[in-house]
């Protein structure tokens, strides 16, 4: 077999192997950039989220009249139903009002 015939095959293998490595590196770079972009998007979404509702202002420990206590409990219940207060926040505020 003539020697000249083997060289094009060797050159083809060398070029093909180099192209494979370059393509693999490009794919890794693209994946890295996609991961970074996903992390940035997640952080931006967290920053854009509305802040948590502030806790309700502290009420007097013992209202002077029973009707004021009922009014305050109704108001807290409405805030919970509207989604402003979580169940835990509602329970804590109710406990403060009732002094328990």
From TrEMBL:
Region spans: Disordered: 24-66
Listed InterPro entries: SHOCT
Start-end of Low complexity biased regions: 24-50
Domain SHOCT: 71-98
Listed Pro residues bias regions: 51-60
Record organism: Streptomyces coacervatus
Protein name: SHOCT domain-containing protein
The organism's taxonomic lineage, starting at the top: Bacteria, Bacillati, Actinomycetota, Actinomycetes, Kitasatosporales
Domain of life: Bacteria
């Amino acid at each position: 077999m003539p020697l000249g015939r083997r060289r094009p095959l060797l050159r083809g293998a060398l070029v093909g192997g180099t192209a494979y490595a370059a393509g693999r590196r490009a794919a890794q770079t693209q994946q890295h950039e996609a991961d970074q972009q996903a992390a940035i998007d997640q952080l931006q979404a967290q920053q854009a989220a509305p802040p948590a509702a502030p806790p309700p202002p502290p009420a007097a420990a013992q209202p002077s009249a029973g009707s004021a206590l009922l009014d305050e409990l109704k108001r807290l219940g409405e805030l919970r139903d509207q989604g402003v207060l979580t169940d835990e926040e509602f329970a804590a505020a109710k406990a403060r009002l009732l002094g328990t």
